[in-house]
């Protein structure tokens, strides 16, 4: 079997970094796309980032359809399932994102298992670990923690990531193949993007830099730089971590602290960047009309801190300071004219 790695959703913010790092490490990469029309764009982007794209190939497959997945996985030694829906504007129905995330994951896992791959790495999220009733204000999040998707404050995105990961573990366990499966649970992903396809996390930073809101919701998030997250995905593929969940996260910062870092780093934007936090009651009120703000109500009153010691001990991957990730995100948005 060749050292070919299937990456789902290769046009994505995280997936392009994983593809770059795998190509630089000497692996061949086969990336899935919903349309072949984007092949040249992806190849050019990765070439500009210093990757030798002679080992890059593509397969057309969509998470909403069975078509193409068997062919995409055939002959691959590893699978990196990274693609999943993450809209900034949450849909109205609590379960609306579940079919795309859960059924898409199961399509990829079935194709990978049928192809006899050696290791499957799936990108989930820390949101599948963090949300449930009666949380302490200072919440230490560990690999054994699970979100309760039936908890009323959970958003459609939180629900979809949790149900998709649960379904994936059930599928692999039922097949007796959990020992070939590892899940990476990243935090709020910032850092540099390779192109304008910058990911929803950077869209949130763009809202801050544009001054979309006069004040910021008083919420906190663990942060991971996409470059460290990519290194974690690559390390997870060959490290002795099968059958485990791995947290990908560094420091926890509030949106207000992120805004302060952006003001200091980019003085030309300082006048637009808010300096104050919204009162809690106003967040709830604004959330009645504003979906991005509504999605943050589940984060009110809790400071989640990621315990990533196990991840570092098992993979050797460490996480750079949040300030570096925040500044790199701002630089990306300015570079590509997104703010």
Quickly describe the structure:
By secondary structure, the protein is of the alpha/beta class. The chain is 40% helix and 16% strand.
Describe this structure in words.
By secondary structure, the protein is an alpha/beta fold. It has a single domain (4-335), classed as Rossmann fold, CATH 3.40.50.720. It is 40% helix and 16% strand. It has 13 helices and 12 strands. The chain has helices at 13-24, 39-48, 69-73, 98-114, 127-130, 156-174, 200-210, 226-238, 255-265, 280-286, 291-294, 309-315, 322-335; strands at residues 4-7, 28-33, 56-60, 78-81, 119-123, 138-141, 181-186, 188-190, 220-225, 245-248, 252-254, 303-306. The strands form 3 sheets. It has a 7-stranded parallel sheet with strand order 3-2-1-4-5-7-10, with helices on both faces. It has a 3-stranded mixed sheet with strand order 8-9-11. β4 (78-81), α4 and β5 (119-123) form a beta-alpha-beta unit. α1 (13-24) packs across α8 (226-238) and α7 (200-210) packs across α13 (322-335). The longest helix has 19 residues, at 156-174. The termini are far apart. The model has no long low-confidence stretch (mean pLDDT 93).
């Amino acid at each position: 079997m060749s050292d070919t790695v299937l990456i789902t959703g290769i046009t994505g913010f995280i997936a392009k970094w994983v593809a770059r790092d795998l190509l630089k490490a000497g692996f061949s990469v086969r990336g899935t796309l919903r349309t072949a029309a984007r092949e040249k764009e992806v190849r050019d982007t990765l070439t500009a980032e210093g990757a030798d794209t002679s080992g890059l190939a593509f397969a057309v497959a969509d998470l909403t359809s069975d078509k193409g997945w068997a062919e995409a996985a055939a002959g691959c030694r590893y699978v990196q399932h990274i693609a999943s829906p993450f809209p900034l504007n949450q849909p109205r129905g609590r379960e609306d994102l579940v079919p795309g995330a859960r059924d898409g994951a199961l399509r990829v896992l079935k194709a990978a298992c049928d192809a006899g791959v050696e290791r499957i790495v799936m990108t989930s999220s820390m949101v599948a670990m963090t949300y449930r009733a009666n949380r302490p204000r200072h919440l230490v999040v560990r690999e054994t923690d699970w979100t309760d998707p039936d908890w009323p404050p959970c958003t459609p995105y939180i629900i979809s990531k949790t149900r998709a990961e649960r379904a994936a573990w059930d599928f692999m366990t039922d097949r007796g193949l959990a020992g070939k499966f590892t899940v990476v649970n990243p935090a709020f992903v910032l850092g540099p993007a390779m192109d304008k396809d910058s990911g929803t996390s950077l869209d949130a930073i763009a809202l801050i830099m544009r001054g979309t809101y006069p004040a910021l919701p008083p919420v906190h998030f663990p942060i991971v730089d996409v470059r460290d997250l990519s290194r974690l995905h690559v390390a997870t593929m060959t490290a002795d971590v099968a059958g485990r969940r791995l947290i990908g996260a560094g420091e926890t910062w509030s949106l207000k602290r992120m805004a302060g870092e952006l003001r200091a780093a980019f003085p030309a934007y300082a006048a637009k960047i808010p300096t104050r936090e919204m009162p809690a009651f106003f967040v709830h009120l604004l959330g009645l009309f504003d979906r991005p703000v509504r999605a943050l109500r589940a984060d009110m009153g809790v400071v989640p801190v990621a315990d990533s010691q196990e991840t570092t001990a098992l993979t050797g991957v460490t996480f750079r300071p949040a300030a570096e990730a925040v500044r790199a995100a701002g630089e990306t948005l300015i570079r590509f004219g997104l703010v």
